[in-house]
Amino acid sequence: MEGERRVRVGLLGLGNVGQSVARVLEENSYWIERKLGARLELKKVLVRDPHKQRPVPVDMITTDARDIVAHPKIDIVVELMGGLEPARSLIIQSLQAGQAVVTANKEVIAHAGAEIFQAAAVSNAQLAFEGSVAGGIPIIEALKEALAANRISCLMGIINGTTNFILSKMAAEGVDFSTALTEAQRLGYAEADPAADLEGHDAARKIAILASIAFETRVSDDAVYRQGIQAVTADDIAYGRELGWTLKLLALARRHSETVEVRVHPTFLPNDHPLASVHGVSNAVFVQGYPVGETMFYGPGAGGDATASAVLADMMMVARRRLSGGKELGCTCFDQFPILPIATVETEYYLRLEAADKPGVMAEIARLFGKNAISLNSVIQKRSIGSDAEIVLVTHRTPEGKLQNTVAALNTLACVKAVRNVIRIERGQG
Ligand SMILES: NC(=O)c1ccc[n+]([C@@H]2O[C@H](COP(=O)([O-])OP(=O)(O)OC[C@H]3O[C@@H](n4cnc5c(N)ncnc54)[C@H](OP(=O)(O)O)[C@@H]3O)[C@@H](O)[C@H]2O)c1
Fold this sequence. Notes:
Elements: E1 6-12, H1 16-27, H2 29-36, E2 39-46, E3 61-62, E4 76-79, H3 87-96, E5 100-103, H4 106-122, E6 127-128, H5 139-146, E7 151-158, H6 161-173, H7 177-186, H8 195-198, H9 201-215, E8 225-226, H10 234-242, E9 245-255, E10 260-270, E11 282-290, E12 293-300, H11 304-324, E13 346-356, H12 361-371, E14 376-385, E15 388-395, E16 398-399, H13 400-410, E17 416-425
Parallel strand pairs: 1-2, 1-4, 2-3, 4-5, 5-6, 8-10, 10-17
Antiparallel strand pairs: 7-9, 7-11, 9-10, 11-12, 13-15, 13-16, 13-17, 14-15
Helix pairs in contact: 1-11, 3-4, 4-9, 6-7
């Protein structure tokens, strides 16, 4: 810190989020300084390509990380490069040098969180990562501070805007998956390579971070059960609607007594669930805890400016603590609870299958469920497809393993052409 009232900032990355951070830091400097009682001064910016036109003075630009990381004239390192490396190494080096670090990088926190928190603890350095989950929604601070006295039992989130846009469009217009994806790409809501969003990797990283904070146990992204939205059809969405449900890519984390359940997959929610009305690219996180009860956090889950809102607030928070000598909260993963294997997780299921359209078939299918001790809530014949019939089955709560065995057995029945889709149903109980 120069004198008492200046905090010097170095940015690693000047892309979507970095440019918004640099611009808003300038535009809102008066209010930021008034609230913080100090000036956040942007000193250096690391980029890959030094020849690109940049909205900051040329002498701020560097391609050498050592101008920022562990540099004695930088107090806060703001990592906005993305990806695992070199971001992870640069964050750790900054923390080891005693610099405060702010990042919006979910990949690094979800995958290398334990190591990063350890580096921060050893050098008593500050680490903040609000922008890494749900863009502009202040969910991490809410879980860490505002809800700190609660025992959180369940988190349910729509935390990937791309997939929520696609599913909302399929539901509103009856279009198929690829049409909705093309539209998302045209509008800039989906990357040219959208795999990380569609396959649920992005949501898995975010729910791993939220579950670690909410349940005080380390959840790594690769421990999260994950299934993407590619197999969802407009028919599934329409049949769900007839049954009073909305389809979402749900990220769910639930605490059991000594285990944690964490999963991301397409899920039917009752239409009156608060998350069912979250449409388009918006994000929301629904939290159940004691004593608070049910709360929901809603807002823009991505975008340079929305994420800059979270990053700048983190920068102000770490600067304030640095100036006041306040203690950092640090890592709160006190436990090491195992993650519940997906085979033992219990939900209700929707199944859509094609079977021969002739007498006795429904009874044969129902008999198989009975034999596997799965109770059926409803069996509905939807329409004829040539000589076959499309059938929708809804089960009562049953363990996943039992359901998967039954699906395998269904596929061997001569009368069943194929099980086309299996979608879990959540009623929202903690
Ligand atoms: N975009 C969003 O809506 C959003 C929302 C929430 C969180 N985030 C997270 O925020 C972070 C930044 O996202 P973004 O969308 O701003 O990314 P981006 O537009 O791709 O920008 C990345 C920036 O980092 C620089 N960079 C990347 N690798 C580098 C390297 N090895 N050495 C030096 N500079 C390097 C790039 O330099 P060049 O300019 O020279 O290429 C670019 O300026 C990511 O972790 C992302 O997950 C983004």
